[in-house]
Design goal:
Elements (H helix, E strand, L loop, with lengths): L1 E8 L2 E6 L6 E5 L11 E3 L6 H22 L3
Antiparallel strand pairs: 1-2, 1-4, 2-3
């Protein structure tokens, strides 16, 4: 998605998407590198399936540990 850097407010950058129906949103200004107000940036979001699977495994493991602790002995 392409967006225009509308302005920088402190540590937040306000961006406006370049879609047919523009959407305004904020990002930490540090995410923009050296992009300045008025410049167009390309924003990409990519799923990280490996990290998601790892996180699910960790949560499942913690749930199992809690279940074992809560069982009457």
């Amino acid at each position: 998605m392409k967006a225009t850097v509308d302005r920088i407010e402190g540590t937040q950058a306000v961006l406006v998407s370049r879609e047919d129906v523009p959407v305004t949103f904020n990002l930490p200004a540090t995410f923009l590198g050296d992009a300045k107000e008025g410049e167009i940036v390309d924003i990409t979001v990519k799923r990280d399936t490996d990290s998601t699977a790892d996180a699910k495994q960790r949560v499942s493991s913690l749930i199992e540990k809690l279940k074992q602790k809560s069982k009457p002995q």
